[in-house]
Amino acid sequence: MKLDLTLDLIGSAPPRLIGDLAREKAIDLSRLFEGDGYDLRHGARAAYDAAASVVTTPRDVARLADAVLGDGYAELRLTPSPGWADLVAGVAEGAAGRLHAVIARLPRHLGPEALRPLTLAAAERGSPLSLTGTTGALKDYDWTLDCAAEAGLPLILDGTDVTRHPRRIRCATLTDAEAERLAEAGIGVELTDWMQAGRLYDRGITLALGRGFAAFEPLNLPDRLHDAFDWDDAVFADLDRKALAVTVCDDTTRDRVKEMTDAP
Fold first, then answer.
1. Residues contacting 217, CB < 8 A, separation 6+
2. Rounded-to-integer distance, Cα 173 and Cα 159, Å
3. Exposure pattern of 105-144 as b/e (b: 16+ CB <10 Å)?
4. Which residues 6+ apart lie within 8 Å of 173 measured at CB?
5. pLDDT per position as a tens digit, 39-70
6. Is 47:32 a contact under the CB 8 Å cutoff?
7. CA 48, chain centre distance (Å)
8. φ, ψ at 210 (rounded to 5°)
9. How many angstroms separate the CA atoms of 55 and 36, rounded?
10. Residue pair 189/200 in contact by the 8 Å Cβ criterion
11. Model pTM?
């Protein structure tokens, strides 16, 4: 697959790089690691937050972007912090010309009030928003959602509520009725349960697949999809072409991505 629309910059960071950043900042993260990977015995969120604590500067995110980006197009999630525009520029520096977009990741567990300054930082930069998690009701985040709508920001939501007209949603599966409704609306779906991909692809859903939290949940997705559904290169190329419609990048980048997906 040439398009990776689910990549989390922290969640895909190589453990060795996070360890290097921790040592450079004199922060003890020894409990975060087990062997060559992350120790998730204290929970994935705790491990994620610990890794994120050492990624604070434009240079840090540049190093992560350089490490995780491949030759295709990727959409990278990152939680905004002070100096958001500089962090986005840092990602671009690390990308070194590789096609990408940066999505402002807004975790619902922080609470609606805490997300307001993060939303404003993203809106000022024109960054697409991903409101992640299931804490509270969606209406609790109306301020953030209204801000995104007023700024014309592409939106990604967890769950199957599409009343806010998201570009994509993120969920484990869909009922047949939900699948029909989303297929008609052209809303993309990021699956947290890849085993549902075959059924939903057959029902005409635009699937947005990728590595996600690759460092925490190592998974060779193309191989799994090939083995489970006998998908070949033609199917993967079709997935890329359809996913182009639910990307969150600007028109210039989308044209370059289309050229890439059209190439043999």
1. none
2. 10
3. bbbbeeebeebeebbebbbebebbbbbbeeeeebeebeeb
4. 191, 193, 196, 200
5. 988 888 899 999 999 999 999 999 999 999 99
6. yes
7. 14
8. 170, -165
9. 19
10. yes
11. 0.94
Strand order in the sheet with 100-107: 3-8, 73-78, 100-107, 129-132, 155-158, 168-171, 188-191
Return the CATH superfamily for domain 3-13+58-262.
Metal-dependent hydrolases (3.20.20.140)
45's tokens: 């969120």
CA distances, 233 to each of 60, 175, 202, 225, 263 (Å): 35, 28, 16, 11, 13
Cα-based angle 83, 158, 94 (whole degrees, multiple of 5): 35
pLDDT digits (tens, 9 = 90+) for 136-180: 999 999 999 999 999 999 999 999 999 999 999 999 999 999 999
In the numeric block, which tokens belong to residue 241? 């072409």
Tell me how far CA of residue 121 lies from CA of 81, 100, 151, 188, 198, in angstroms: 8, 19, 12, 25, 38
